[in-house]
Design brief:
Elements (H helix, E strand, L loop, with lengths): L1 E2 L10 E7 L2 E7 L10 E11 L3 E14 L1 E7 L2 E4 L3 E5 L4 E8 L3 E7 L11 E7 L3 E12 L3 E6 L4 E6 L2 E6 L9
Antiparallel strand pairs: 1-6, 2-3, 3-4, 4-5, 5-12, 6-11, 7-8, 8-9, 9-12, 10-11, 13-14, 14-15
Length: 180
């Protein structure tokens, strides 16, 4: 996740594993490493495997001053974008991405900067906030070979995902990324 255009510096983030009904995953807490132009109270990512059918990525930041948030996915596959979803088409496989956020957000497409002039730049899929916010939760659902749906209810701090062979609801903590 980028906050105010800044990625995390290198260093050791805190990690722990967790499990729930229909999911298992890891939480990365990088709060102590974050230096994004505003004091940060929480900077974390959870990556959950949903019964071997899909992956849910939750990025969350809480800042004392409002800032911008963004997640990026780099690809060389053919990319089709919609308002809050995308489809990557490789040589033989597809990957569907669905997005949700607790604040207004949109998808944008850009290009990378190749270090070799002979190499084509990769496509960058950007899921980013519209405007600045003090608390940002960005959810990405990745499903191979089929679609899926992700919704986020900020008031209830819940994320619901569903697709072929899975339906999961996770709840994040009031001031943490701990999931239940």
């Amino acid at each position: 996740m980028f906050v105010n255009g800044v990625a995390l510096p290198r260093g050791a983030a805190k990690t722990h594993t967790l499990t729930g009904p229909g999911w298992e995953g890891i939480v990365v807490d990088a709060t102590d490493l974050a230096s994004v132009g505003s004091p940060v109270d929480l900077y974390g990512r959870a990556v959950l495997m949903l019964g071997g059918k899909a992956i849910l990525v939750l990025d969350r930041v809480m800042m004392r001053h409002a800032g911008l948030g963004e997640v990026r996915y780099h690809t060389r596959a053919h990319l089709q974008c919609r308002k809050a979803s995308a489809r990557l088409q490789g040589a033989t496989k597809t990957l569907h991405l669905s997005f949700a956020a607790n604040v207004p957000a949109h998808l944008a497409r850009s290009q990378g900067l190749p270090t070799s002039p002979a190499r084509r730049p990769e496509t960058i899929l950007r899921w980013l906030t519209d405007g600045k916010h003090r608390e940002i939760v960005l959810a990405t659902l990745l499903t191979p070979e089929g679609g899926g749906r992700v919704t986020l209810e900020a008031e209830k701090r819940t994320v619901r995902v569903s697709g072929k062979g899975y339906a999961v609801t996770v709840r994040y903590g009031e001031k943490t990324l701990d999931l239940t």
